[in-house]
Write a structure and sequence with these properties.
The chain has about 350 residues and is an alpha+beta fold. The protein is built from 11 helices and 16 strands. The chain starts with a strand and ends in a 7-residue tail after the last strand.
């Protein structure tokens, strides 16, 4: 089975590495190994279905076919100040001698590319591609098309599921593999892996965890999608509950700015977690007389003992206990967020370890 992988994000490389490491093994044997390693017995909605799927497909020709990573389809390289910026997926494809396609407008370029590159036996896997794939593209693959989506669908459909998960302080989430349809993230569930959240994960942390789950489960989802495509039988899939759909929206630079005086510490910390890296959490600081970015934060405390306070100005609090200096930003509606590092509008970074307010 030849895999065509669509992605515009280099953080999906671990999934590609897992596929490469599994080349020349049958799809069924990879899926069986993943099923056993994931220990899905607690995933009641899918355990029985996947177990039955493995039994139903063990002797089918397509399931016994060997897996190969045929093509990576990603965004074009671009030029910045006269220098070509090549994304890491491009480099990955070149390093591993994998066919590469970088369309400017996939809708317009697809037919020409397809006519010379798709020869049958392909399945499409999509992970954070960032562009809409129409029916003409999705129907080009003999064994169907599936999508990696990092939320517990039908919750948080759309382009920013992990940010909304963190922003809303969810205690659990999931990785969903779904069949690709024209309805945004509305396809049937092929597999869903629950993930408990500890409350301190940043967007970077959660992205890593969701990709790792994808790297450990892609073959199960492909086996389910391919079976349904060949047999026109969706018995091993789960229909999303349309009564519980929630949507996400595009993350913009403007969302980084938050008025810390109008939120509590938990909401402020969740904002930091969700927008970690970009667009960051930005506040207008009276103490520093400029906007600052919260670069590294540790967690939330509801109150601070006055006995250990060595500095307080209504915005910032510093404590000293057992020779350990800690710095907190006071949220307007209650609580404090521990801050390790900030960046001033001037570009200067301040590491609060060893920094004392005057």
């Amino acid at each position: 089975m030849k895999i065509v992988f669509f992605s515009g994000s280099d953080f999906t490389i671990p999934i590609l590495e897992s596929i490469l490491a599994s080349e020349n093994k049958s799809l069924h044997s990879i899926a069986k190994d993943q099923f056993e390693n994931l220990q899905l017995v607690n995933q009641k909605q899918f355990y029985g279905k996947i177990k039955d799927l493995l039994e139903a497909t063990q002797d089918l020709v397509f399931a016994k076919s060997k897996v190969s990573l045929k093509t990576i389809i990603t965004t074009p390289d671009y030029t910045l100040r006269g220098k070509t910026i090549q994304n890491k997926l491009t480099k990955f494809a070149s390093h591993n001698s994998i066919e590469l396609f970088q369309p400017e407008k996939i809708k317009l370029e697809w037919e020409a590319w397809k006519s010379t590159h798709l020869t049958g036996g392909e399945i499409a896997a999509v992970a954070s591609f960032g562009k809409i794939l129409n029916d003409n593209v999705l129907n080009s693959f003999e064994y169907g098309a599936l999508n990696w989506h990092p939320s517990k669908l039908p919750q948080y459909r759309g382009m920013s599921p992990m940010q909304f998960t963190l922003l809303n302080g969810e205690q659990k989430t999931a990785l969903s593999w779904i069949e690709m349809t024209q309805e945004m993230d509305g396809g049937n569930l092929l597999l869903q892996l629950d993930k408990q959240l500890l409350g301190h994960e940043t967007l970077s942390d959660l992205t890593t965890q969701m990709v790792e789950l994808g790297a450990k489960s892609w073959a199960i989802a492909m086996l389910s999608e391919a079976y349904s495509k060949i047999n026109a039988d969706k018995q091993f899939q789960v229909i999303q509950d349309v009564n519980n759909v929630s949507l996400t929206s595009k993350i913009t630079k403007e969302l980084g700015l938050i008025d810390y005086k109008c939120v509590d510490a938990n909401k402020l910390f969740n904002h930091y977690r969700a927008y970690y890296g970009w667009p960051k959490t930005i506040i207008s600081s009276q103490t520093f007389a400029q906007k600052i970015s919260l670069i590294e934060c540790f967690g939330v405390v509801s109150e601070i003992s006055p006995d250990i306070v060595i500095y307080e100005d209504g915005e910032w609090v510093q404590t000293l206990e057992n020779k350990k200096l800690l710095t907190y930003l006071k949220a307007g509606l209650g609580g404090f967020i521990q801050v390790l590092k900030i960046k001033l509008e001037t570009g200067k970074e301040i590491n609060f370890q060893g920094y004392k307010f005057k």
